[in-house]
Fold this protein.
Amino acid sequence: MSGIHHVTAIAGKATRNYDFYTRVLGLRFVKKTVNFDDPATYHLYYGDEVGHPGTILTFFPWEHAAEGRGGGGLAQQTAFRVPASAIGYWTRRFVERGVTHQAIERRFGEPVLSFTDPDGMSLALVGAAGAEAEAAWQGADVAAEHAIRGFHGVTLMIEDAGKTAAVLRDVLGFKDAGTDGPFARFHASEAIGGIVDLREAKGFIPGRLGRGSVHHIAFRAADDASQATIAQRVRELGLQPTQQLDRNYFRSVYFREPGHILFEIATDAPGFAVDEPVATLGRDLKLPPFLEGRRKEIEAVLPALDGTGPPAP
């Protein structure tokens, strides 16, 4: 098993972020929690019905964060899978909703509709072969035949593609899948969340983290043993993984790949239904045990998110 587990990005206003991803893109809001290292800030999770690995886009909404800048050493674009027949629907929807988007292009033989979210994050919808047979979340106003299935993949802009490619192949289990213009593609064993494209840009201006940029990319490990094996491969390449950290819904190990992008290895288990039923995912604010004693203090500084239910008493 290999592929993307989740992508975590930086947003501005939390309510605007919630509206865009649930009401424009039609993703399910699967978890409302806080940044464990900065509990005065939400950590918002969007995905499919249960938050399967490969479908989860998460955000730290720091309202007053400076705008990020695309460039070397950052993810250039995050792409979702949709049926190829749905690209026309999404183009019309973006026009109707005022979403900034580009003309449809083809990449690796697939139609790609690039667009940006309200914070300027670079995103795309890719018409992927076979996506029509994949499960779709049907709780939004986007019909299942058009709905997002999960991640198609991510594009990374880096100085030296060779070193990052070695991490993808030798550590994370991706395979070479050819090139298209400036893009070198690597494919994992999973269809959803299974693609990483590398765009080598020697001497290009470095990117800067901020609103609209990707903070880190997490890759899947089936369990703790698999994660430990992957972490050992990281060490063998001369890189330095962190100790395991418990994120309640998965367990994480982090490291910086040679292009300076922060990678995470996240376990599939225990998943997002560990502290609330699937039917009510995202409704209530969920805190890790070490923050429960500060619930009133934390709730007092977090903005209300319409449609997710009132704070717990």
